UniProtKB/TrEMBL annotation:
Residues 162-262 form the M23ase beta-sheet core domain. Residues 17-57 form the DUF4124 domain. InterPro entries: Cell_wall_metabolism_enzyme (IPR050570), DUF4124 (IPR025392), Dup_hybrid_motif (IPR011055), M23ase_b-sheet_dom (IPR016047). It holds the Pfam family Peptidase_M23. This is Peptidase M23. The lineage of its organism: Bacteria, Pseudomonadati, Pseudomonadota, Gammaproteobacteria, Alteromonadales. Gene3D superfamilies: Glucose Permease (Domain IIA) (2.70.70.10). GO terms for molecular function: metalloendopeptidase activity. CDD domains: M23_peptidase.
Amino acid sequence: MKGLLLILLIGITYSHAGQMYKYKDVNGNWVFSDKPPEKKQSFETLEYKQDKKPTTRVKLYYVKNTEGFTLHAENTFFMPIEIGFISPITQKSIRKVIPARDSLALFHSNKKTAKVSYRWVLGDPASIAENYQYHAPFSSPKGHRITQAFNGKFSHTNEYNKYAVDIAMNVGTYLTAVRAGTVVWVKDDYHMSGTTRYFLDKANVIKVLHDDGTFSSYAHILMDTALVKEGDKVALGDKLARSGSSGFSTGPHLHFSIIKNSGLKNIAIPFKFLDNKGVAFTPKRAMIMVGSSKP
């Protein structure tokens, strides 16, 4: 008789609380901020207290059978993942791809082994990125300046951020899908920002998987503004969330990138945007981008 004997990962519970201010600027646009307006004017306060219990994304567990024990891995994402580990039986490095929302047997043993150390990343390393040209990741017709582009010296210096683009925009600007796909990651539970190491993993992010196996990443979104959930299908131009300044950030902006699995490692890849006339361009620092309307 089969039975689940050991869960190797557990979830944790945490909460965040604070206050946001909502008011209109001199142009009549709504502003969302953690600071009240500098000038005397009417404003609303938005109180929030959020308790969330994140689910474990990758679960490892043993199944007992008549021949011993089999270690399985379950992928709860709406996209494939690659998992890598050292087999406690052969001491060899093993990598396997687990399909979306599926499980896979990793290895069999006559007896239950010690806890297995492993790594996993989003995506299938066998996927090949298409030469796709992307629409602007926001719908605002206002011009927004690119403050950091490819190989930016401030924070675009590692493989995951090398080909990212930072676009300055007011808090609350609608972010839109640059390409059709499936929403595979939604995090919008954090409200603060800063430039110390503490904030490196705190940014709110939405990720959308595309047909070629790459995924677009929209980071620093405003807390509790996600308009989509994991598993949703989105079309080009669909609204995803509102922009903010959560996590490692010096001010309100969108950190946008196209990511792929290069072999147990997610990396950013170079890409081009399309302007409103359909002309492709490589994003450069100080360029002004205008938002695209939904097709």
